[in-house]
Design goal:
globular; Rna Polymerase Sigma Factor, Chain: A; 2 domains; mainly alpha; 186 residues; 7 helices; Arc Repressor Mutant, subunit A
Length: 186
């Protein structure tokens, strides 16, 4: 008769810090505290509707908590988090597009309601987000990183996994397109 060995699986403590492959700890709570505002702004600026921003930011940090070892420390935490945010937003957009197509097949979409914000700064931010919607996603991401978040061209290239010359070209194309949109609006 063979004796079966029982393995007892002990779930990690909530307070335990994840450890990466090199043995260095990745404190998810510290990343959250330090970079929450950055991730929230990035998700919003990548064109997510206000009602979904909080959920997607949470999803970004869930990815971080599940895969803390994925941060190889070749870049800054901000660039790593932005890359995760881009993938989460892209996944959200694909799902939203599928849901919209499915909904359109069964019912007519109600016309959009235009909200006028009495505060000029909020109105300017809303206008910028509308203008950013006209850009291809890769140009939008490059522009947001460079112009709104202040990353350098090489940092933008690293986040988007392209050559620096490509990143600069996308930033320039985004600027030109935004200026064109502003001229047309006038």
């Amino acid at each position: 008769m063979s004796t079966a060995r029982r393995l007892r699986v002990v779930p990690p403590s909530i307070d335990a810090e994840p450890v990466d492959e090199a043995g260095a700890s990745t404190d998810v709570a510290a990343l959250y505290r330090e970079h929450f505002a950055f991730v929230w702004r990035s998700v919003r600026r990548l064109g997510v509707e206000p009602a979904a921003v909080d959920d997607l930011v949470q999803e970004v940090f869930i990815v971080v908590a599940r895969r803390p070892h994925a941060f190889k420390k070749r870049s800054t935490p901000r660039t790593w988090l932005f890359g995760i945010a881009m993938r989460v937003v892209s996944h959200h957009r694909r799902g939203a597009s599928r849901r919209r197509r499915k909904h359109d097949a069964f019912a007519e979409m109600p016309s959009g309601v235009h909200r006028v914000d009495p505060y000029p700064q909020a109105e300017a931010a809303h206008t910028l987000l509308r203008l950013l919607d006209c850009l291809p996603q890769r140009h939008r991401a490059a522009y947001v990183l460079a112009e709104l978040e202040g990353l350098t061209g090489p940092e933008v290239a690293e986040v988007l996994d392209v050559r620096p010359s490509t990143a600069y070209a996308w930033i320039d194309a985004a600027r030109k397109r935004l200026l064109q949109q502003l001229e047309e609006a006038r």
